[in-house]
């Protein structure tokens, strides 16, 4: 009987996740998710005690803080140390380049990426 070679599973891509105002961090394996939608649903559950809910990052929905109604924006640090908005690059590129995630207050996200500036202008 021939021995079958199985391909090993891809290495995990663990990243730390923090949320402004939350007293704890979480760690997620990005390789377990297939899209921004999957990740956003999971993060919404992880930080549910601090948010009303989180929808798909790609639909540009925002987290809303229960206490004061401030908006939150998911961002990430890439391999170069730059902070970017989640959803600005294709999913596969995001998984390969993400070092850590931060769900930050929208007011702090201004200037992170062009999309943040456009959002700010559309509110005025």
Provide key terms for this protein:
124 residues; 23% strand; disordered C terminus
Number of helices: 3
Question: What fraction, in percent, of the residue positions are helical?
Answer: 10-25%
H and E order: EEHEEEHEH
Q: Please identify the structural class as seen in this structure.
A: alpha+beta
Straight-line N-to-C gap:
71 Å
Mean pLDDT: 76
Low-confidence stretches: 115-124
- Write down the overall geometry: globular
Strand content: 15-25%
In total, the number of strands is 6
User: Rg, please?
Assistant: 16 Å
Q: Quick one: biggest sheet?
A: 6 strands, mixed
In short:
Strands 1, 2, 3, 4, 5 and 6 form a 6-stranded mixed β-sheet that branches. The chain has 3 helices and 6 strands, in the order E-E-H-E-E-E-H-E-H.
How would you describe this structure to a colleague?
It is a single chain. The protein is α+β, with helices and mostly antiparallel strands and 124 residues long. The chain has three helices and six strands. Strands 1, 2, 3, 4, 5 and 6 form a six-stranded mixed β-sheet that branches. Strand 3 (63-64) and strand 4 (71-77) form a beta hairpin. The longest helix is centred in the N-terminal third of the chain and has 11 residues, at 36-46. The radius of gyration is 16 Å and the shape is globular. Mean pLDDT is 76; it is low at 115-124.
């Amino acid at each position: 009987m021939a021995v079958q070679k199985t391909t090993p599973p891809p290495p995990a891509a663990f990243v730390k996740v923090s949320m402004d105002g939350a007293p704890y961090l979480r760690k997620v394996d990005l390789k377990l998710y297939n899209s921004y939608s999957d990740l956003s649903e999971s993060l919404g559950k992880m930080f549910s005690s601090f948010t009303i809910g989180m929808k798909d990052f790609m639909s540009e929905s925002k987290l809303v803080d229960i206490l004061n109604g401030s908006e939150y924006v998911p961002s990430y640090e890439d391999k170069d140390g730059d902070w970017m908005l989640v959803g600005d690059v294709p999913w596969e590129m995001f998984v390969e380049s993400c070092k850590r995630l931060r769900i930050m207050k929208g007011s702090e996200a201004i200037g992170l990426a062009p999309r943040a500036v456009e959002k700010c202008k559309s509110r005025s």
